[in-house]
Amino acid sequence: MGPSPVTRPTILVIDDHGGFRATARRLLERDGWSVVGEAADGRSGLAAAAALAPDVVLLDIGLPDVDGFTVAERLAASPDAPSIVLISSRDAETYRERVRSSPAAGFLAKHELDGTALRSLIGTASP
Q: By CB atoms within 10 Å of each CB, which of 50, 92, 96, 125 scores lowest?
């Protein structure tokens, strides 16, 4: 038998901007992630997380229906909770205290997103 295939960490991107979701997908897949789904709002994001069981959820704070912090709490309450990384176009200082008190592994400003930054927040080895 040959070597076993490398398992790529799976990720769900929840963000209301289609352009950002597409950019995040390209960046993350180039850096070894497997983007298993996308959602444009909190409700569909929760449903997608339940159906897809990703390792990580990249979660925008400013969603149109449910605040990202609320979505993070709901995701964290699930039996096989994914790692959660909050994102925003605003910088970390804007949300510092709320991020600290949330169940998220951390926060990235959207312009800082890449696979290496994401791995450093959640402690995942490179594929």
A: 125
Burial of 107 (0-12, 13-18, 19+ CB in 10 A): buried
Per-residue pLDDT tens for 61-93?
999 999 999 999 999 999 999 999 999 998 777
Asked if residues 52 and 12 have their Cβ atoms less than 8 Å apart, the reply is yes
Contacts of 106-109 spanning 24+ positions with Cβ under 8 A? none
Q: pTM here? A: 0.90
What is the sign of the dihedral through the CA atoms of 25, 51, 85 and 55? negative
Domain edges within the chain: 10-121
d(CA 26, CA 51): 22
Q: What's the rounded Cα separation, in Å, for the pair 60 and 124?
A: 20
User: What CATH number has the domain spanning 10-121?
Assistant: 3.40.50.2300
Q: How confident is the model at residue 1 (pLDDT cuts 50, 70, 90)?
A: very low
Q: Is residue 37 classed as helix, strand or coil in its secondary structure?
A: strand
